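Lab meeting, item 3. Inverse folding demo.
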């Protein structure tokens, strides 16, 4: 079990895109089979389905970007409300807890100083995750195409690999 866990951990760069590709292949298989029965070539059916999935994902991404744009247009209003809440919190801390505005400003300066030291690490992690995602977006359709194209050979290999009673 430990050896299997180590193998899965070290091979995650291969197994993660392969598992997503396998999932996509399972979803696209009935559609590809139907298209092949209608006379469409095997590779053409696979490519058409992958293009359809890509278009659907692109539409979802475009929708998300538009939502982010609309959030950006509402940002000034949100910023004003946040500033008002911040001022109310400052006055509450001063009235109820007797914390002077100077101490509050010192706390905010310390918070800003600590946040900026972690900001570079956050940016680095974001760029790294984005690069990995782009590579996965490139590999997953290729793996899906190959799984669908060589599905009979893969099933035959799986049958040969497993014992006869299974």
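The presenter then showed the designed sequence:
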């Amino acid at each position: 079990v430990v050896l299997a866990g180590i193998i899965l951990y070290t091979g995650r760069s291969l197994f993660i895109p392969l598992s997503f590709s396998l999932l996509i292949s399972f979803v696209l298989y009935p559609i590809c089979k139907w298209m092949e029965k209608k006379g469409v070539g095997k590779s053409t059916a696979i490519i058409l389905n992958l293009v359809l999935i890509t278009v659907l994902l692109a539409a979802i991404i475009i929708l998300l970007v538009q939502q982010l744009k609309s959030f950006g247009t509402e940002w000034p209003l949100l910023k004003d409300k946040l500033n008002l809440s911040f001022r109310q919190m400052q006055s509450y801390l001063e009235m109820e807890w007797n914390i002077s505005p100077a101490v509050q400003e010192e706390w905010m300066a310390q918070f800003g100083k600590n946040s900026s030291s972690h900001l570079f690490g956050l940016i680095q992690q974001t760029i790294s995750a984005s690069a990995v995602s782009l590579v996965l977006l490139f590999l997953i359709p290729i793996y899906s195409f190959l799984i669908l194209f060589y599905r009979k050979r893969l099933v035959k290999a799986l049958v040969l690999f497993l014992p006869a009673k299974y």
